[in-house]
Amino acid sequence: MWFILAGVWGYSEATLFFIVPDVLLTAMVIRVGYSASLKACLVCSVSAALGGLTMYCFGSGDFDSARTMLEKVPAISSDFFNKVEKDATRDWYHAVFVGGISGVPYKIFAAIAGQQALHFWPFFWWSVMTRSIRFFLSATISACLLRILKAAPNASIRPMFVWGLMWFLIYLVYFWIHGW
């Protein structure tokens, strides 16, 4: 069940959903363990890249409609599109990598890649790789934090409470900076 959810979430977030799959993947570390979470990271990465291919095709066929639709997703604005277009012109692969760890939605990169007619297969494999790095990093950091929590003198701290608070604060700051 967790792996199906990871696949659906990865695909959805790469297209129109706006909550990153890292939320699920980090919860998996707490609920089902680090090893299962890493397997889900791979499922999520491939499905996110497939979602990216959907946006790639949409961007290559009708970029203006893709952009209009994506700008209706919470926290996505024309500023993000302008930044991605500028960064991607210089070095698309570097821009996607940095974007994945700096909060720039991948779906924008995918639509612009389609508009710019980047080579399909390199785009797909680079997407899998960059998504994997971020997802594996999130799961690993979560596992390390869980270990610290369990070793704390006050072991009554609930890991899921800390997880929920962490993601609440991350999204509070993100939406405060980028708007709803």
Notes on the structure:
This protein has 180 residues and is mainly α. It has one domain (2-178). 82% of the residues lie in helices and 0% in strands. The chain has 7 helices and no strands.
User: Low-confidence segments, ≥5 residues, pLDDT <50?
Assistant: none
Number of strands: 0
Radius of gyration: 17 Å
Tell me the number of structural domains: 1
Largest sheet: none
Structural class: mainly alpha
Query: What's the N-to-C terminus distance?
Result: 31 Å
Concise synopsis of the structure shown:
This protein has seven helices and no strands.
Jot down its keywords.
180 residues, mainly alpha, 7 helices, 82% helix, 0% strand, globular
